[in-house]
């Protein structure tokens, strides 16, 4: 079966799959404005660090493509100053949609640079707009290729490490992942799930284990669907079962994506990642982070400076899905699992895994490992 897709874009149409309705209903919704893109990200209809960079970039391209064709000519095409004010405003607005994933900021900074470069050499507004349209599309298009590169780097690194340690993997590798990092979270193939796919494609994977990833259930709703679609042998576990899994099964690695990687390697990722890292260290299981270079934020010295998004408390009280037993209709329901009026709910969307618990960080450029005995962090310079 063909891999799932999160974004469909053509010359004049931009659509996303509404991830709130997956895995039971596949509904594409149209994105017709930068406001639609902002809303889709804020309400989690689209999520995953690379995908929430691609969509805003494409929505800027769409907005500007329409502007070039529209009559009367929009005011912002009349002067470089007007264009700058207009684009700066749009990018600042899109940047506010979610705070933790740095990829969104990296995309808006790329577009700002294209704008400023065009202005500094006194290009005509229409020419700058053409450059911005191309740059917006490039942000989304580049994602798939680099995902395949990092997936291969990560997969080959793990195979080599297991070989070097003389471990038996004649029946394949067992790998645990958290959250959803596949085609739905990116423009295609995925980061951590890309590594799992690569191992499967090269006949090196025994099973992919994945956590349900409460409270949003990116694991049980989205990763489950992706692995099923790709026919990759897999086992779902509840978030509370990671320790038990490590005690009773041979797990060769934990592989996760990232929303922001600080200069020292501290990594923000979906809530529950830190728990898995602590348990992996206890069981001497390598812990691998796979993410594009745009996820590395060299302006942030360590994880204590990464902004952590707090989601609305109600989201931790609800489970969404279809009625069970399934009546045959895919009527979507949200079920409340807490007493009404409950107060005191802690709902951070991400946690930070310290570099000391991470074995390897992989980007499209290669693999960084900590030097033997190094406790202070990673030298990421070779992979950014
Ligand atoms: O809140 P989400 O679903 O956007 O969080 C997603 C994650 O934490 C992913 O693991 C991360 O963005 C990497 S996606 C390739």
From TrEMBL:
Coiled coil: none annotated. InterPro entries: IF-2B-related (IPR000649), IF-M1Pi (IPR005251), IF_2B-like_C (IPR042529), Initiation_fac_2B_a/b/d (IPR011559), M1Pi_N (IPR027363), NagB/RpiA_transferase-like (IPR037171). Pfam families: IF-2B (PF01008). One of its GO terms (cellular component) is nucleus. It catalyses: 5-(methylsulfanyl)-alpha-D-ribose 1-phosphate = 5-(methylsulfanyl)-D-ribulose 1-phosphate. Its main location: cytoplasm. Belongs to the eIF-2B alpha/beta/delta subunits family. MtnA subfamily. This is Methylthioribose-1-phosphate isomerase. It comes from Hebeloma cylindrosporum.
């Amino acid at each position: 079966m063909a891999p799932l897709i999160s974004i469909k874009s053509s010359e004049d149409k931009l659509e996303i799959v509404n991830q709130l309705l997956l895995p039971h209903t596949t509904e594409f919704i149209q994105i017709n404005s930068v406001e639609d893109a902002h809303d889709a990200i804020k309400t989690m209809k689209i999520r995953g660090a690379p995908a929430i960079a691609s969509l805003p970039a494409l929505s800027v391209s769409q907005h500007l493509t329409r502007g070039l064709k529209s009559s009367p000519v929009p005011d912002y095409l009349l002067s470089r100053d007007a264009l700058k004010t207009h684009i700066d405003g749009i990018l600042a607005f899109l940047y506010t949609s979610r705070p933790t994933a740095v990829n969104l900021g990296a995309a808006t900074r790329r577009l700002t640079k294209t704008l400023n470069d065009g202005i500094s050499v006194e290009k005509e507004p229409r020419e700058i707009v053409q450059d911005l349209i191309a740059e917006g599309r490039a942000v989304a298009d580049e994602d798939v290729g680099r995902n395949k590169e990092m997936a291969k780097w990560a997969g080959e690194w793990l195979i080599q490490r297991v070989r070097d340690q003389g471990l038996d993997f004649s029946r394949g590798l067992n790998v645990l992942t958290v959250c959803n990092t596949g085609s739905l979270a990116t423009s295609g193939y995925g980061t951590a799930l890309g590594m799992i796919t690569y191992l499967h494609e090269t006949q090196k994977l025994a099973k992919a284990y994945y956590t349900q990833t409460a409270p949003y259930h990116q694991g049980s709703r989205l990763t489950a669907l992706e692995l099923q679609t790709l026919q990759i042998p897999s086992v779902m576990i509840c978030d509370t079962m990671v320790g038990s899994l490590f005690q009773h099964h041979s797990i060769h690695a934990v592989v996760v994506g990232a929303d922001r990687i600080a200069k020292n390697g501290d990594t923000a990722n979906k809530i529950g990642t830190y728990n898995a890292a602590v348990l992996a260290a206890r069981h001497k299981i390598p812990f691998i982070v796979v993410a594009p270079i745009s996820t590395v934020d060299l302006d942030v010295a360590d994880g204590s400076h990464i902004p952590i998004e707090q989601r609305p408390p109600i989201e931790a009280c609800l489970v969404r899905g279809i009625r069970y037993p399934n009546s045959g209709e895919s009527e979507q329901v949200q079920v409340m699992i807490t007493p009404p009026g409950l107060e005191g709910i802690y709902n951070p969307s991400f946690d930070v895994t310290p570099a000391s618990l991470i074995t390897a960080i992989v980007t499209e450029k290669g693999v960084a490992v900590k030097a033997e005995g190094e406790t202070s962090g990673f030298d990421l310079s070779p992979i950014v």
